[in-house]
Amino acid sequence: MHKSDIPKTYRVKSFGCQMNVYDGERMAELLEAKGITPAPEGEAADLVVLNTCHIREKATEKVYSDIGRLVKSGAEAGKEPMIAVAGCVAQAEGEEIMKRAPAVGMVVGPQAYHRLPAMLDRAVKGERSTDTDMPEDAKFAALPRRRKVAPTAFLTVQEGCDKFCTYCVVPYTRGAEISRPFKELVDEAARLVDAGAREITLLGQNVNAWSGENDLGHAVGLDGLIRSLAALPGLQRIRYTTSHPNDMSDGLIAAHGEVEKLMPYLHLPVQSGSDRVLKAMNRSHTAGSYLKLLDRFRKVRPDIALSGDFIVGFPGETEAEFEDTLRLVEQVRYAHAFSFKYSPRPGTPAAGMNHQVAKEVMDDRLQRLQAALGRDQLAFNEASVGKTCEVLVERKGKLPGQWLGKSPWLQSVFFEGDAEIGDTVRVELAQAGPNSLKGRVLERVAA
Description:
By secondary structure, the protein is of the alpha/beta class. The protein is about 35% helix and about 25% strand. It has helices at about 20-35, 60-75, 85-95, 95-100, 115-125, 140, 170-175, 180-195, 220-230, 250-260, 275-280, 285-300, 320-330, 360-385; strands at about 10-15, 35-40, 45-50, 80-85, 105-110, 130, 150-155, 160, 180, 200-205, 210-215, 220, 235-240, 265, 305-310, 335-340, 390-395, 400-405, 410-415, 425-430, 435-445. Helix 9 (about 220-230) packs parallel to helix 10 (about 250-260) and helix 13 (about 320-330) packs parallel to helix 14. It is globular and about 60 Å long. The model has no long low-confidence stretch (mean pLDDT about 90).
């Protein structure tokens, strides 16, 4: 890598989960604090940060493909961009990226990206660097204050995972579970609201494992944090994701029936409907205990929208065990869900298990599962027609005069009428599709 000019523009390309989106936003703020501005849409950036995810199949090879495309397009334009690789692939691969991709100047893991500006200073001098340390909680204190945000904002409250599901790399790439301090989170949430946020989604690999001490010195869980955030003037909505069934407390379940600002939506991954497969995955729940947990949520909040995650084709999964998953889906009737084919992650126990399922079998099972999930998502949306609800306006729609926002149940709702981004409007849900609903505006709602 040769000595370079200080980059004037940047682009952060984030893949994967909401926590990566949050991390990408914070890295952008770090770069802007150095006077580097976002590259205009359609124009090449002087600095590109690939904020990677290690969950999907062949994630590492896709990173190298992206690097290759950047090098090629830069050569054709007469100037290659500076390239940084961040996120979970950076954490997993480390120096290997440096060896395989000479064009990369910086490799930084998800717990060390607050050091990106210093790494950039070295890169300008022609020095390549890798930082995959995992200092507990240090990065949040080093990040700049949020100044201007969208009506919806993410707030990371917890990172890491101690569950060690046999298919998952998160404990190795994000480290052990840590919770950010209560006061730090309340203060950041207040700043987000001051900067324009009307809805905050609390993030964590196992967000409901968060714990801390409140201002009175009392130990509280995620429900205690939510209740404190609900007292913030100007904050209209609170959500949280992603939860683990093993960390679901009585207090958090009760909060769904008692805290008005906590939206009626729960994302709770199950992964499989087969108890044998769940045990092989090192999940701590059974299909039966999971269903009982959902029943408790529905008892305190009957209109709650349920979401989940599924993996099909886990090593050794039989057709009968896959049908157990279909039966669970039939019982739950998810409003929304994510489903994936199993793909081995290097270094995880499942990657070395016998009886890996054939690709064509996984393809067939995924199609059948997604058909069932799609059926239920459409049914949930259709059952919403005729309801009135508040919609938080997030952006303009595709058509002139059209706006798009989210219902309390996290459905995308589009409508035409008098509104602005950040407004809350009351709408009647008039028409349902598989992925969105059309609404008719009734009135604006005072903040």
